[in-house]
Amino acid sequence: MKKLMILAVIVLCTAVTAAAQEKFNSGNNPERSVYERSFEMPQQYVNVRDIVILPNKGKMIIELNNAAQYEELQHIDTLLEAVLRNIAFYKDSLESSGSVRIDYAADEKYKFSKIRFQIHRPVGAIFMNEPNEISKLKLEQDSIRIYVKRNPVFERDVESGSGFRYNLTHAGMYQVTFCLNSYTDLASVLANKGLLHHAIDTLLSTKGKRTLRNPFRRPSSTRFDPSIQETPDSKKYKNTALNRFRRFEGLISYNSEGRWSITRSSDIVEVTGNVGIGLIRNTFAPYAEVGLDYERQLKPSWWDNNRNVTWSLFASSYFFFEKGTDNTYYSKPNWFINAKVGSGDRYSAGLGYLFDRRGDYFKGTTLKAFMNIRMFKSKGLTLSPELIITDDFKQVIPGLTIKVF
Question: How far is CA 21 from CA 34, 59, 148, 275, in A?
């Protein structure tokens, strides 16, 4: 019996060790095998993931640590030429009815590059039956992944093609993956340099300012199909524009078709402030507020690709002025504590409670309900219609506040 127990313990330990080793070698685990670390960019460093639709249902998946790396990808044709030249020696060995995966890794620290070839045999033979002709059918695309490691760059105030200046830091690694019907189609992709440069220039020039400033907190993805041409008629239809170009606040998964999903997004807490002027009854009063915003990125749906919800807690005050008997003006601030919620970047609504009352402008318990309407997409002029309930809920006062930030 004792020997059987010892044998059972040995078998159990062996199984646990094997399971742990299998988990360690998993590509989805941060602690990847030494092979995956050599040929794949760690996913926790991916802050930009863009997908370009190529002819014949091909894809180019670009994964960057920083959008500034698009500056280097403007020379992607030179990189592809080196890849094709270096894998040419193995071409005769890759003929297969299955799918082929080629991993190409270039590290600036070394004078050589590493190449890995994998052939995935199909489960059984699949044929396509056409009239008077039967041919083999290939269901899975070939993939070529190019992983580049550079020495980290620490520069500031780099100007993008759109003229916006941003901070370029930690741009040490990126990867580009091509999913093609045949790996030999990479030569056709390289031959169409105009398409490649157009895609790179478009993706760089359309990145949001917040992603350029801080890509870790503001990861971004874009799906771009340059084959869809916009016409005056097509601009009337939202679906046409979204099928051509769609940007997401977050990282989209690799193989999402139709209903795109976010694999990583960032929640943000920011200290915010604003100033303006408020109209209370028939009196104009300077206005100021300061508080915290918590922005929660939500999973987008196929019809709305830029959704977020922001909760805010902030203090605000109207500064009234009265003239004393000595002909000196005295400031009498009335402070509210407020909470608001908003969806998107332009509309929000909330409630406020008067906790510090000065003067006779408000009496007793005072509450207010308000709505913020941002007049422009970027930060700027905001109109806030208000309804102030004062004098222990006996009096209602309409108000309007104009904020400038």
Answer: 12, 33, 27, 59
Q: Find which of 41-50, 264-273, 279-288, 319-328 is predicted with most confidence, using mean pLDDT.
A: 279-288
| Mean pLDDT on 135-148 | 77
- The reported pTM is 0.59
Q: What is the DSSP letter of 25?
A: T
Nearest to 274 by CA among 195, 199, 384: 384
Gap between the Cα atoms of 367 and 382, Å rounded:
21
Q: Span 157-165, mean pLDDT?
A: 45
Are 354 and 316 within 8 A, CB to CB?
no
Do 103 and 145 meet the contact criterion of CB atoms below 8 Å apart? yes
Residue (of 278, 64, 271) closest to 150 by Cα position: 64
Per-residue tokens: 363: 């009496």
Give the tens place of pLDDT for each residue, 256-306.
544 456 666 667 788 999 999 999 988 999 999 999 998 876 654 433 444
Q: Which pair of structure tokens corresponds to residue 114?
A: 């590493």
Whose CA is closest to 44, among 291, 215, 194? 215
**What is the Cα Rg of the chain in Å?**
30
Q: How many CB atoms lie within 10 A of CB 396?
A: 10
Q: How far apart are CA 63 and CA 50, in angstroms?
A: 7
Q: Token match 């290939």: residue? A: 138
Residue 158 pLDDT exceeds 50: no
Q: How far is CA 237 from CA 241, 261, 282, 302, in A?
A: 7, 23, 46, 15
Beta bridge partners of 369: 351, 387
pLDDT band at 111 (very low <50, low <70, confident <90, very high): confident
